[in-house]
Amino acid sequence: xxxxxxxxxxxxxxxxxxxxxxxxxxxxxxxxxxxxxxxxxxxxxxxxxxxxxxxxxxxxxxxxxxxxxxxxxxxxxxxxxxxxxxxxxxxxxxxxxxxxxxxxxxxxxxxxxxxxxxxxxxxxxxxxxxxxxxxxxxxxxxxxxxxxxxxxxxxxxxxxxxxxxxxxxxxxxxxxxxxxxxxxxxxxxxxxxxxxxxxxxxxxxxxxxxxxxxxxxxxxxxxxxxxxxxxxxxxxxxxxxxxxxxxxxxxxxxxxxxxxxxxxxxxxxxxxxxxxxxxxxxxxxxxxxxxxxxxxxxxxxxxxxxx
Length: 307
Hints:
This protein has about 300 residues and is an alpha/beta fold. About 35% of the residues lie in helices and about 15% in strands.
């Protein structure tokens, strides 16, 4: 799972390896992803939508009326791509039976924020202009910084009066770029690849206006939003982002559910070797297929016998 986490930092702290430049990290992550074949059940198709490169993932034996999982990848908004995340999103497609569209949004620092947000909005608006697609057939998803980007996109769409997607699921979401959550003080030994010092460097080097609601949706008006599913590990530095966003969503009258996995660290769900990753995929499938997303109490640790 190291590559997925390192995409946030352009650092490699594992085994005392020297730090990498941002470009070196991007290349390593892309090369690793390119070496992994997609499952034979998946068909990938590239499409440029209103100038934004995107990647479609479908099952070979698709139904033809699938929900579209509109996926925004993580990587700190500075790394990651459709390539680095297509294997994980393919596992979501296999588990849910739905189709997915990964948006290859522009990255910071070559393109200052809000360029990633603008690209997500552009692609979504273009989808709604297609005769065969309506908002109720679209579910937003994202991991890490992509989760925060997904929420910010929905908030922006609501503010402009656009039709909203039907649901949102997030994995290890980054919702507060000021890093004010109490879990940021967690024992660093629990999070093997991330430290608060590294995150502060990333924050300082690439972003301004950290409490801007567009960059940090925790500070947004979170009323009148679609049902949401929030997945997070209880050993994450970013744990408080998920618990606080859940509490604020509920306080503002939204339907939301949070699941907290014991002993899991940042974006654990992207590690296919973990049983907890399979559980997360099942949780996403059940959420997508459910008619209603019910508000539930925070569960810590997850009760594996409650499925």
